[in-house]
Structure formats: structure tokens, C-alpha cells
Write a structure and sequence with these properties.
By secondary structure, the protein is an alpha+beta fold. Helix content is 17%, strand content 27%. The strands form 6 sheets. The protein has a 6-stranded mixed sheet, with helices on both faces. Strands 14-18-19-15 form a 4-stranded mixed sheet, with helices on one face. The longest helix is centred in the middle third of the chain and has 16 residues, at 228-243.
């Protein structure tokens, strides 16, 4: 913001002279009105234009508002004359300052998922790609109020969305906007609409115009369904929801400060589906496991998860990834498409060196692992079994923080 300086303001009188009490002021030359300030003298002070100083009863007069903002007339209360000071320096009129500021659009959208972690997108009658519910912020309207209004108008569902997932700056040269629109750039807020149950989804009522349909899309499918910038923004906001560390600051859909999930591109490829029913306890004798993965707990209650560097796919580590561990618990198994996916639970201490450089190793909460996986409706039952195993191992419930990548070398946590 422009700053005001007036450490050596000058004083002059319109008639050229002024006498007050025992002091006199003489203006021998006409001063430039853009480089002077007018003050009334005090009873015992003098003001001389040649030295460009103004004195009051005991000292010099300076502009008390020199910290910033447009120049303002200052009344001289000491003289009681009500005369004004015209302050000079690096300043603008209110009109000039207002004209110098950038003008941007403002928008608000809402990210909603179903219980399988798929994202709600809507089809509209004015463009071919899919959109999140939302739209423009009206003049004088708060972004969160705009988000609630847009969802109500477009989907017929009332709601309140106080939690922001991302704030994105969209540049003026975005290819999504034709030149004739004179798009000035936009600040777009992404709010968390939460997870909608089948009953709430069934309550959706579309308007007669604009929105022609809704669908729930696998996160990895968003780039094929949405504008490129919209897809980047939605995936970044979805990762910010999993991270649970507050809104992500984005520039054209890309995080300014990427987290491990962002760097590894988690959710950019389809999640590995395991939709079979969950069965707690040991694997029955007649069944042979197809694979065996483990929930390996760090001392703080987080668990080890692997992320394929090439694809961003997330999976639990094989049972042997944590090495021999006492107190391993048979957690349960999942039957899906003729395959038997067995699970166990145990402690992760120490953490071994990375066995395969193709995978990054992250520590995450069990809930975060669940949100990054495609386990169908039975996923919550497996998560409940994980919580029970954690309690049996005497470990705390982990606080949700952004998943952190472990170094490649051996370490203890």
C-alpha cells in the first residue's frame, strides 16, 4: 500500500504572512502547492518557508498518519483555526488507489463424495465437461454462503459448508476462458461437502434448467471428465481433505506447498478395488489366501502404507514388510472375485530399509488408508477390526496429520 511521509513538511500562509502571539511567519517566495503543507502557528512558535519546517508550541509538526493510506486534511487544533494540511509523499487519491488494484472474479464450489470415495460431478446444458456443484459469488456475498446457495439451487439440497479444502488462484490467461470473455482471473474456494449417504443422494432434485444430471466418479477418472484445471483443483482438494491439515493454497490447481500425497500423485490412477465381504478372525482351513497384507502400527498409532511411485496407487505392505514382529494378530480376510485377501495386524518397530525403491513408504492413520482405498461398503467393518487390534496392542489412536514419507534407510520411530 502507498506510504505517506511528511517529516519535513513546509508551512505557508495564503496571504504570505501570519502573526500569532510573539511569533511571525514570512513567505518570501510562492511555494509549489504539491510540495508544501499548511499549518497554523502556535503562540510561541515560528514557521519559515525557507527552512521548510513548521513549529508548534514546543517543537516541529509532523504528519501523524504517515504510515499509509491516501492523504487526508489535518485540522490544527492548537491554533483553533481549523486550517487543513495537504500532506505530500508517495500517496494516491482514493480513486487512484482503487483503480490500481487488481480486479478478480470470485467463485465457490463444493466437493462431495459418496461412501465409496467417489466424487459428485454434474452435467450442465452450457458446456460438455463435468463440474463440481457451485458457481459465482454474488456481490456482497460470502464465499461459504455462495456455496450453500449454489448447492441448494443446483441440487435442491440444503446444507452448510464451513470447512474449506482449498483456495485456488486461476490466472487470466487460463485456456478455459475464451479471449472475448476478457477473463480477469479468479479466486475460487473449494468447500467440503462431506460424504453423502444413499438417502441424501436420493433427495437430490435437479432444476428445470442448467443442471441435467449428476454422477459419482472415481477420482482417477476426473481428468477425462472435467476441464484440466478443474480436475487438478478437485484432486488437490481431495488430497487436502485426506491430509486434514486445513485448506490447501493452490495456483491454477497446483499446491503451492505440496504434501507427500501431492508429490506422489496419489489418486491419479484408479484405486485397487476389493469389494468383497469382510470376515473377521483367522482364515478357515478350507481357504487358501491369495495374498496377505498387514496393518503395521508405529508407536504413535499410525500405520505403514505403500505408494507406487509410477502410478500413485496405494496398498498395505506384505506381511513380511515389517520383519518378524511379536504379537501378530490375525485380523480377518476379504473374499472378492474368487480371491482371498488375508489381513493381520502387528507392531512396526523398527522400520526396515525400503525393500523396493519403486514404492514410497508413508505413515498414515488407518482412516486415511481407508479413504485412499476402494474397499466398498465393507470397508468400515475392516476399519473397526483395525481399531480393535490397535487397542489390543496397547497403542494410541493416531491424530490426523498429513501422511509423512519415511526415508529409504533403516530407522526407528
Amino acid at each position: 500500500m502507498p506510504q505517506l511521509t511528511d517529516e519535513t513538511a513546509t508551512a505557508t500562509d495564503e496571504s504570505g504572512t501570519e502573526t500569532g502571539g510573539t511569533g511571525t511567519a514570512t513567505d518570501e517566495t510562492e511555494t509549489d502547492e504539491t510540495a508544501t503543507a499548511t499549518y497554523a502557528t502556535g503562540e510561541t512558535g515560528t514557521a519559515t518557508d525557507e527552512t521548510k519546517t513548521a513549529t508548534g508550541e514546543t517543537g516541529t509538526a509532523t504528519d501523524a498518519c504517515a504510515a499509509g493510506g491516501p492523504a487526508r486534511p489535518v485540522a490544527d487544533g492548537a491554533a483553533g483555526q481549523g486550517r487543513a494540511a495537504v500532506v505530500t509523499g508517495t500517496w494516491m487519491t482514493p480513486q487512484e488507489y482503487g483503480a490500481s488494484r487488481a480486479g478478480l472474479w470470485a467463485g465457490a464450489v463444493v466437493l462431495v463424495t459418496d461412501t465409496d470415495g467417489r466424487v459428485l460431478v454434474q452435467s450442465v446444458d452450457y458446456r460438455p465437461d463435468r463440474l463440481l456443484p457451485g458457481g459465482a459469488v454474488d456481490p456482497g456475498e460470502a464465499p461459504s454462503a455462495a456455496a450453500a446457495r449454489e448447492v441448494r439451487e443446483e441440487l435442491g439440497v440444503d446444507g452448510h459448508y464451513p470447512r474449506a479444502l482449498a483456495v485456488d488462484w486461476i490466472p487470466a490467461d487460463s485456456p478455459s476462458f475464451p479471449p472475448e470473455m476478457h477473463f480477469p482471473g479468479e479466486i475460487l474456494h473449494v468447500f467440503d461437502g462431506g460424504t453423502w449417504t444413499p438417502d441424501r443422494i436420493a433427495a437430490v432434485r435437479l432444476p428445470a434448467r442448467e443442471v441435467t444430471g449428476i454422477a459419482f466418479a472415481e477420482p482417477a477418472d476426473l481428468p477425462a471428465l472435467m476441464d484440466a484445471g478443474d480436475a487438478r483443483r478437485t484432486l488437490s482438494a481431495l488430497r487436502a481433505r485426506v491430509n486434514g491439515a486445513g485448506p490447501a493454497l493452490l495456483e491454477d490447481g497446483r499446491p503451492v506447498l505440496p504434501t507427500a500425497l501431492d508429490r506422489l500423485g496419489v489418486l491419479r490412477t484408479r484405486r485397487i478395488p476389493q469389494h468383497g465381504a469382510w470376515h473377521p478372525g483367522p482364515l478357515p482351513a478350507p481357504l487358501t489366501e491369495t495374498d496377505h497384507t498387514a496393518w503395521l502400527f508405529a508407536p504413535d498409532g499410525r500405520v505403514l502404507v505403500l505408494v507406487a511411485r509410477a502410478t500413485g496407487a496405494v496398498c498395505l505392505p506384505p506381511r513380511a514388510a515389517g520383519g518378524p514382529a511379536p504379537g501378530v494378530l490375525p485380523l480377518g480376510y476379504r473374499l472378492a472375485d474368487g480371491a482371498v485377501h488375508a489381513r493381520s495386524a502387528g507392531r512396526l518397530s523398527p522400520v526396515p530399509a525400503a525393500a523396493d525403491p519403486a514404492y514410497a513408504r508413508l505413515l498414515a492413520t488407518p482412516e486415511q488408508v481407508r479413504e485412499l482405498s476402494d474397499w466398498g461398503q465393507a470397508g468400515h467393518r475392516e476399519l473397526a477390526a483395525v481399531h480393535a487390534a490397535r487397542d489390543r496392542l496397547g497403542l494410541p489412536a493416531a491424530l490426523r496429520t498429513p501422511p509423512v514419507e519415511l526415508p529409504a534407510q533403516d530407522t526407528r520411530r
